[in-house]
Amino acid sequence: MSSRTLPLLFINLGGEMLYILDQRLRAQNIPADKAKKVMNDIITTMFNKKFLEELFKPQELYSKKALRTVFDRLAHASIMRLNQASMDKLYDLMTMAFKYQVLLCPRPKDILLVSFNHMDAIKDFVKDTPSILSQVDETYRQLIEMYTPLSSGEFQLIRQTLLIFFQDMHIRVSIFLKDKVQNSNGRFVLPTSGSVPHGTQVPGLIRIFSCTGEELTRQQFNNGGNYNAALREGSFEIFGDRVTKLGTNMYSVSRPVETHMSGTSKNSAQHTKVSAAPNPLAKEELNLLARLMGGLEVEKPGNTDSVSLHVIPDELSYGVINIQATKDQQANAELAKIMGEFTESGDQSPGASSKGDDLLAMMDGL
Amino acid sequence: MYHKEKSIQIKNSASALYNNLGVLRIAPRRLTYFTVVHANVVNMISASWDGLNYSHRQLQSKEPNVATSTSLIMQAAFCALPSRDLLVVTSQKGIQMYESDGSIMVYWHALDTPETPTEQAVFARGISAVWENYICVGVSSGAILVFDVPSKGSNITLSEVLEEHKESITDMASECSGSQECIANLVTADDEGNLCVWKSGEEFQLLNKIPGFDMSCSSVKLWKGTVVAGYGTGQIRLYEAVTGILHAEVNAHARWIYSLDIAPFSGLLLSAAEDSLVRVWHLTMTPETNSVEVAHLHNECVTDTQICGAKFCDGDGYAFAVTGYDLTDPLGPVGWEMEPLLTSCGYSIGLGSGTL
Q1: What is the ipTM of this complex?
Q2: Which residue from A5, A152, B161, B273 has the least number of CB within 10 angstroms?
Q3: Region labeled Disordered — which residues (chain A) (predicted)?
């Protein structure tokens, strides 16, 4: 459908990923310098110039599997290590959060405001690092250039394309369940109350006009809900009040971040549950974006510490994402081995092994 | 006024697309066909009126060749012509026409799709049977393709391309097929809210253009010379088709309208939107004074659901069916609800309960 959907999908999912990682890094009291390095490395990779160029080209949305591969690579663009289960958890949380935001957007155009909320938060993460900051600013400009001229109908097409991508995903997220924005069956709550979208009137008025354009009668009807007038419009500029809270960091108050493992798979008997886990044998899933992502040079860390993110199963069978700092030489060696096309510090990696094989080797190490 | 009956299950949930419910009543066989689009598949259900028999079929979007990626379907709608009924399916790659039971594809028209994707999406959307022998289909460029349909067989031809809209076509509607003479018998709508009113013929004639206000008109109907249009702002407007005079304006919904339908014999209007609400209205036309009345009759809330299709199941509006994005329930995918109207004589047609 819309060929302009992928940048919004990637930036918003990336933003959610950063919120979750940031919360976990703080909750686990990871040393500030390590935490900052993880965040900076991921953000640098996300906003790499060549990567964004490819991202912003008109193209159809990637399949779920293909997009998952891109995020796997992104998550490994730092000293952080994830095992398969952790990555699954993280991805579930990211996708359900963005699905929620897309569904709850009052107008399709508000998806752009949601994207700016994510961008604003990312900018705040890197405000002390000018080099990355300029990459982020450049991305704002690209978003504004590409999206602000679009009509409401074109935004609705983007939204419909995103909703097809998210179709049939009903993973229950405990932060949503606690806040009562998601039901126990995984469906999101759509209130018939609150402010109407900008540009919409509160339902209830029928006006009849004469042939000459004068209003003849007006009557009210019961709208079955509890609506109030629209709020002011959010800002579509680089700086400004976005008004909507969708896309802001819902993890900023310290809360455990969990997904419910039980229940969802039982319901999938009738649905074909599409696994988003990448298939190491499927080289064709390594689409161009994934290749670009995987090829990005990682700055060789000063020490050999890495940060590993994994799931610890507990007796309640809730998955909890935990971050541990371990000395993991082997992981670093593998990451460092990847041929860099995009060298941040000017170092050239030695060797010319096939990039595809390197990426597969990296996936095998997961 | 309406009560909810049990739902009919379909194999997968409805996608968030405008007008995502097709209904065809086959009175001689006492059954009704329903179509619901899910991504690249059309789910077809044939339901017997006694509620005892259901059969299912799935139609896939056609790919011009195996190497291309899956084409998403934008709309599936029944076209009832005097001589035959066809099911038309529009996608990113082209237009497929089937016999109304979905058994045989009788025609395929490929859209000009560029090799590498362009900024402007390419797809077909907006389907209507017109007069005795035409089927019109809209395209994302704003063009309207007019197909000439013989009374039987597959010798369907592209008769004309109407280029009046500059924005993507969203929906179109007609009235007076075959029987009566009408001044205008087709209205087409686009993403900027512009409406074009046409008279069919060997060469279609543009009778009027009603400008929009930069707000998409997602669903449109034509009844007794009146255009009924639903917009992304949640408003419904009624215009006199040929003159463009605005008869009525209704602040109908709190979110984007996805579907409108009219029961032509009774003047009942059905509207459904992303706000979870289905509303039933009554339209009265008084030709002597050239005036229109709009009365609100009923609300139905489909909890926590963004509705994407709503249609009456019969010409009087005794029953209507609804589809919603991503609908599920604890027992499995839920299709929609049938709601019979209990009239004063207690007569109702509704589909009973049924499971796969």
Answers
A1: 0.90
A2: B161
A3: 259-279
